[in-house]
Amino acid sequence: MDKRRRALIRLYLDKATLVWNGNVVTGLDALNNFFEMLPSSEFQVNMLDCQPVHEQATQSQSTVLVVTSGTVKFDGNRQHYFNQNFLLTAQVSHNSTVWKIASDCFRFQDWANG
């Protein structure tokens, strides 16, 4: 995330929404500003799962739910456990398919630090 932070917004739809610990960020400009203000980080993904979302729930748009969890440290601070869920949707043009993030929900799981 830190090495190519400016490129992160290319992964998102123009009107994508990120909910970061309950704070809503919508649109590419707001997402770019948000990612730029985050301190340096070290992420460790411990679990990753993907499954298709039924077309009836997405108006026949090909969509995949991605669920992750792991640990993150920001700027040398203490480690936090986190969960992050993405909805990826296929953007189809006449000659290619590109998957973009439509919705992204990140949440610290500090209760797990016991």
TrEMBL record:
SUPFAM superfamilies: NTF2-like
Principal location class: cytoplasm
Record carries keyword Cytoplasm: yes
Keywords: Cytoplasm, mRNA transport, Nucleus, Protein transport, Transport
BP GO terms, sorted: mRNA transport; nucleocytoplasmic transport; protein transport
One cellular-component annotation, GO: nucleoplasm
Domain of life: Eukaryota
Protein localization: Cytoplasm; Nucleus
PROSITE patterns in the cross-refs: NTF2_DOMAIN
Limits of the NTF2 domain: 1-108
Described function: Has a role in nuclear-cytoplasmic transport of proteins and mRNAs.
Protein name: Nuclear transport factor 2 like export factor 2
